[in-house]
Amino acid sequence: MLSRTFCVTPLLAVLAALLPAAGAAAQPADLSRLVVVGDSLSAGYQNSCLFADQQVNGYASLIARRAGTSLPLPLIGAPGVPPCLALVDPGPPPVVAPVSGGLGARLD
Q1: What is the Cα–Cα distance from 42 to 64, expressed in whole angstroms?
Q2: Which regions of the chain does DSSP assign to beta strands (E)?
Q3: Preceding omega of 79 cis (within 30 degrees of 0)
């Protein structure tokens, strides 16, 4: 039979490794260089397109805004890439179609 000390010691070692040091918890995170790596959601893809008015409301932009740091985005002009979808007729059934006007281009 294993002694109680033999069983408790590894458990305490694991808990000590998982708990942050007291000094580390007091330091604020440095978000002066925020980099976002991801997919369409990271870029602010909404309504089946990438468009400047929607990109600024993507989760990466919201995190940067909340952290008080800048996050330059490659903003896309109207009508978006691919062109955004718009409700043409509420129906029933609803009719949704791409906005006309070709493809959008980078604004910056």
Answers
A1: 12
A2: 85-89, 95-98
A3: yes
